[in-house]
Amino acid sequence: MLRTMSTHPFPAASASGAAPAVDVADVTVHYGDVLALNNASLSLESGRICGLIGMNGSGKSTLFKTIMGIVRPDRGRVRVHGGSPAEARRRGVVGYVPQSEGVDWDFPVSVRDVVMMGRYGGMGLTRRPKAADHEAVYAALERVELTKFADRQIGQLSGGQKKRAFVARGIAQGASVLLLDEPFAGVDKRSEATMSRLLRELADDGATILISTHDLHALPELADEAVLLLHRVLMHGDPSEVLQAENLALAFGLDVLGGKA
Amino acid sequence: MDLLELVAEPLSYEFMTRALATAVVAAIVCAVLSCWLVLIGWSLMGDAVSHAVLPGVVLAYILGAPFALGAVVFGFLAVALIGAVRGTSRVKEDAAIGIVFTTLFALGLVLISVTPSQTDLNHIIFGNLLGVSWEDLWQVLILGAVTFAILVLKRRDFTLYAFDPTHAHAIGLSPRLLGATLLGLLALTAVVALQAVGVVLVVAMLIIPGATAYLLTDRFSRMLVIAPSVSAACAIVGIYVSYYADTASGAMIVLVQGIAFTLVYLLAPRQGLLGKRLAAARRRRPVQV
Ligand SMILES: Nc1ncnc2c1ncn2[C@@H]1O[C@H](COP(=O)(O)OP(=O)(O)O)[C@@H](O)[C@H]1O
Ligand SMILES: [Mg+2]
């Protein structure tokens, strides 16, 4: 059972009037002269899985960083469960599964160490784990089926297991919003299916999941909704509708689905 | 002469016990810090900050202020200047680091050349282990203890910062503050170590032990034990060798550390060159029963 999630303070918002889990309104972000996000708007309800698609450089990672409050928008506003990103940080609401290229896989930490890092926000000054922290880490590892690999160095896992280790970190954190940056890059189909099942379970428990991916074929299976991003949100709706060739052409400028099959 | 005498003889001189104590404390503190520096990729930064503290130390000497204060001020000044040059021009980071630290180091040398009582200050550049006074030793002990305590108490935060600053931010920690703390500790450590090996060689003590330990284990907690142990052992061996062979003591310590790294690089069970070859050979030729 996912204890941390079942007690989280944000019940799945079927109740009308509850603030969206994630609300990005008219956000513009520049890096120097480079425009990364241009008036992007996006609203996600609790318990939904949303696929984020867009070509390299379209601003997917930047959108994640904006939701986490790492990048300050030049214009616009971000709310997480009705609060500012700073409040969300204080409560550890947002969990993050980084892009593979962003991780030093030779870093001398074990899978268990990585998952334990999810607990640091609620720990004392020296982050010395208590029994409850060890239990939460174990439960999270069990949830993602990695207990056998707890003592492995993080780089000694397969592509899919690595991603699940970071999902476990978000679970141990008690995050109710999970952001996954291209978790299927370099991951085989079976691991991808395992991950999809896991994400569905988490969403059923009330978590909100935003996931950037290039695997357009698997998207209708995986996600409840899809967002097409090219610096701004071109489209947000049902995956099958968003994946229509003429819509993809807007974001990618070519016939992606046909080209990949 | 038997082994016991060989070990005991230098200790009969007070200046040698002071030298040993200073070198061991510096070796331990530097080695602990080096574990994070090599993992974050801050070796060049370590080089820069340890050189850039020189004008701060000289100015502190002239003004009669604590060395540590001058070192920390100039350590941060160097980091700020590097960030400014990199962020506001097309010059890349390694060039920015090179420009800033050599300029500040040169400023320090110029300040030394115009300051009366040059002899004292020249020791800062190459170290003067055998001339360490009780007062110097106390300063090393206090600074070393403070730095060591902060590093050990906040070790989990620093490791998280080194591994995944984005996650650190997401759970409400401040990567910026953690990074700045590490840089401040780097400046303090430079003051500790320059008593032992001098400004020029401090960077060796700040990189080699962490890199050596990294080749020996997959666990950060073990790196934090291996690095200072190896480093302290090298410091002791280096001082004894320099005593009997009559060589420069600071340089000898660094030389021994370099030799230790080389041995580990060649012979380490898994990461060593030999270990990797053996493992490859074993894979090619399945073990017969
Ligand atoms: N730290 C940065 N500094 C400068 N430019 C950046 C930085 N991060 C991203 N960019 C630029 O912003 C744009 C969006 O990047 P990103 O959000 O990483 O896109 P994606 O994740 O969709 O590939 C790209 O043009 C990229 O080059
Ligand atoms: Mg990206």
Walk me through the structure:
The complex is a heterodimer of chains A (261) and B (289). Chain A is an alpha/beta fold and 261 residues long. Chain A is built from eleven helices and nine strands. Chain A has helices spanning 3-6, 60-68, 85-91, 111-116, 131-143, 159-173, 189-204, 219-222, 239-242, 245-252, 256-260; strands at residues 22-31, 34-44, 49-53, 75-80, 94-97, 177-181, 208-212, 225-230, 232-237. In chain A, the strands form two sheets. A six-stranded mixed beta sheet of chain A has the order 5-6-7-3-8-9, sandwiched between helices. Chain A has a three-stranded antiparallel beta sheet with strand order 2-1-4, covered by helices on one side. In chain A, β1 (22-31) and β2 (34-44) form a beta hairpin. In chain A, α5 (131-143) crosses α6 and α6 packs parallel to α7. Chain A starts with a helix and ends with a helix. With 289 residues, chain B is mainly α. Chain B has one domain (3-278): ABC transporter involved in vitamin B12 uptake, BtuC, CATH 1.10.3470.10. Chain B is built from 14 helices and no strands. In chain B, α7 (134-153) packs antiparallel against α10. The N and C termini of chain B lie far apart (51 Å). The relative contact order of chain B is 0.16. Classes of the chains: A alpha/beta (261), B mainly alpha (289). Bound molecules: adenosine-5'-diphosphate (ADP) and magnesium ion. Residues 60-61, 99, 181 of chain A line the site of magnesium ion.
